[in-house]
Prior knowledge:
The chain contains 14 helices and 4 strands. By secondary structure, it is an all-alpha fold. It has 2 domains: 164 residues, Orthogonal Bundle (Cytochrome Bc1 Complex, Chain D, domain 2), CATH 1.10.760; 136 residues, Cytochrome c-like domain (Cytochrome Bc1 Complex, Chain D, domain 2, Orthogonal Bundle). Helix 3 crosses helix 7, helix 4 packs across helix 7 and helix 12 crosses helix 13. It is globular and about 65 Å long. It starts with a helix and ends in a 10-residue tail after the last helix. It binds heme C. The site of heme C has 26 residues, from helix 10, helix 12 and helix 13. Heme C binds next to helix 10, helix 12 and helix 13.
Amino acid sequence: MRRKMIRSGYSFSILLFEILFVFSLVLFYSCEKPAATSNLSEEKDFSVPPKGFPPIPFPKENPYSRAKFELGRRLFYEKLLVRDSSFKSCSHCLKQEYNFDNNIPNTLGYNRIAEFRTTMTLTNVAYYPRLFWDGRLEGAQIERVAYRSMFLPYIFGNDTNVINSRLTNHPIYPKLFRETFGENAKPSAWLAAQAIATFVRCLVSGNSAYDRYIRGDSNALTASQKRGMVLFFSERTNCSVCHSGFLFSDFKFHNTGNTLHYFDLGRFYVTGRYEDRYKFMTPSLRNVEVSAPYMHHGMFKTLEEVLESYNRGGFPSINKDSIVKPLNLNEQEKQDLINFLKSLTDWNFLRNPDFSEPKW
Ligand code: HEC
């Protein structure tokens, strides 16, 4: 009898506790507005490119929406997509302060497996006609890259079923997926990839000193940067033959003779053509100041080293581009070119809190 009383007293207090707990949860989630907007600039349309840039090409199958951008931003910084805590998230290798790139030659993925080339930046990638140093993926198929990264053993090393259930059992994600993809949407790795791709397409950078200069602010560049610009676009250096267009890349493949030891066959792995051996896709030079180390192999730590290589006309190499020739630049000219490259840095973009890790 006594035991029964104790038991019923005990279960009453548990019941009371549970009621209070559920009540506090309801209170917590009803107050929890930040989940929807976090700390983003209100009203901002992230699909609008900087002045002078073409419209951001969002694919028909995955159009822009503000909700998708916000969800993608969270997921870009989300560690539950990675198999375990060995590293953080997409942002582990693609850091905003390094132009959504990183500062090491060989990135280590899951299980510390090393990438054999340097990471390529995500900035402005929406406009790219093809991806990766060897251009192995035609089109800016960012959804596909994001999805594959989740289960490739050397990147996130995860299993999409594990990701689906982690997202489904998360206290907030199911609601965010419904708000983004419709009432019946269930969180999944594939939808997560769509959202991440939308966030990534909005990482457009076009407000450097150089951009301000070409929009009419003649004081935006220093005298040295202006001299460097003239050199960059001159037939003497030919820099702008390959680093052309608004992203400073022709997105074609060249061998610039930047090493004596090419062991990576580059574009050849994609086409199998001998004339493509040791060729790599021209990288964009926007924000290049902060994205060292340089070249596919990451062997140059500074822009000075890059300039030294171009100035010597590269090393002799099979398939080296014939326009890469000794330049005979003096110290001042080299410095002017470097200063011009630095005028392509968009500090507002690199520090824009709308692209940084959201606070839950
Ligand atoms: C023949 C085409 C071509 C010309 C001309 C050319 N580049 Fe390049 N540039 C490339 C390619 C291709 C790469 C990547 C090469 C690699 O990884 O092996 C590159 C890489 C670079 C990088 C490193 C970027 C990074 O993120 O790793 C910088 C900086 C650079 N070039 C600046 C210049 C400058 C300055 C000039 C003129 C002096 C110039 N380039 C001339 C094609 C060219």
